[in-house]
Amino acid sequence: LDSVGRLIVITSTQVPFHCRRILSHIFNKPIADIRVIKPRIGGGFGGKQSVIVEPYAALVTIKTGKPARITYTREEVSMATNIRHEMSFDVTVGAMRDGKIKAISLHGISNTGAYGEHSLTTFMVSGSKTLPLYNKVEAVHFGGDIVYTNLPPAGAYRGYGAPQGLFPLDCAIDELAYEIKMDPLKLKEINSIREGETSPIFEIMGEGREGVPQTMKSCKLQECIDLGKNEIGWESKRGKKIRNGSKVRGVGCALAMQGSGIPKVDMGAATIKMNEDGSFNLLVGATDLGTGSDTILAQIAAEVLTVPLERVIVYSSDTDITPFDVGAYASSTTYVSGNAVRLAAEKVKDRLFELAGKYLERSVSELSLQSGIITCKDGPSVSLSELCTVHMYTFNQQQISESASFVGEESPPPFAASFAEVEVDTDTGKIALLNFVSYADCGVALNPIQAIGQLEGASMQGIGWALFEDIIYGKNGRMLTNDFFTYKVPSRMDYGKLTCRLVDSYEPTGPFGAKSIGEIGIDTPIPAIANAIFDATGIRLRHAPFKSERVLFEILNMEV
Fold first, then answer.
1. DSSP per residue over 121-181, as a string?
2. Is the pLDDT of residue 438 over 60?
3. pTM: predicted TM-score of the whole model, two decimal places
4. Domains identified in the chain and CATH numbers
């Protein structure tokens, strides 16, 4: 508690404002009496989107009046927080002999665990972020059941249902291609969405509600396909089953789309305050989870105001100080919060032009801003620092600051084409991932190094899901894989070459042409690797992770 008895909660969260709201309901305290602060944290990936530990620490503080701290061990994190939604799908794909897909049916069952925190939205995303990708189809069915179980509750995790839906859909299309003796990449290519096109699924399905109609204003999926297949050597390797003793190689592909926030739901806000030295304080509710969003949002403000990045000082994720933001999820921050920052910066810029026009005795139309200096066509100029100092201390005194909010009217999808090359040992079933290539269209990459880092990190998580990571329960429902000794995550030694690159496009509704990159990389590794295993061995694995014993069992069955 602070000096006036307000509850101060410092927590590793993706959703500080939702955390404040929920704590207010739990303890029947006014929102004004609660302050939530998110310090610098090392990651979230959806797992910190729920309010789990905060009420316990808050309760101790409220009861005792003293500071309290709660920290979960690795075992407690595994069993007492959230896991990903396990899903199983029956998928049917119908196409003509020429490869034109006419019908898709995706019927699933989802394990939401003990509580239904994200049950509906996650299941809907498994269809809404996969089915529009193949928009040439004439009939689509999507449905299923979400079931409670006596297991840990399922929550949010990167991809949020899209990887679960894409795995069966992409592999079924791949399987169909082999049935009609067609290159699977070609089949996916001719049926997938392109720039200027739409799908009725966008309007029918959102996240827990109806969606919004969308037309693809930016889609460089074809370029992703072309670059990726050349990088992996698709034409020379597919179907060749190159052998080296007991080991055989194969290649597989997968296409994906995601989104940029939840349209008409996700909201971000920003406030920019100017200082007399020409620097700016940027206040944003957006939550940096190690994703680099503080840097990206500062870059957007700096670009509009034409000042160096270090002249923008960021304050984020403090419910007392920063403006409202729904939180860091749904690949929303750059697109939603970034647009709010852009709008706030443009309002500050307009205000500066108005003040500079009076100061220089010129019309606003004659002014331009470059490198932190406002100049006129006929020569007079004033620096931002001089202009702000004058208006703070001597002339028409005022604080120069502006706020803006943004709610997306649509959710422009990023696109990706990924390719995997595997080597399977037919004596042991061991799978070696030799090469994984992923090209993504995220609009204009405002910070290419960070964007590629997001794609690489998400790809790594997808590779772990495909080959290593598995939650195993005992007969009584007790989790047996609750530490890093039993729950295997890949290290750099567990895969071969990883190539992640971006293609250039421009999303007109995004800040400076940007759209999202955070989640899409995790969608493709499972189907791409599964398809590569089939190309090498003729075995269709329909359950991730693809363990060596499962592969060997299938090989032995084939031999029998």
1. HHHHHHHHTTGGGSTT-SEEEEEEEEEE-SSPPB---TTTTHHHHHHHHHHHHHHHHHHTT
2. yes
3. 0.96
4. 7-71 (3.30.365.10), 86-262+410-559 (3.30.365.10), 267-407 (3.30.365.10)
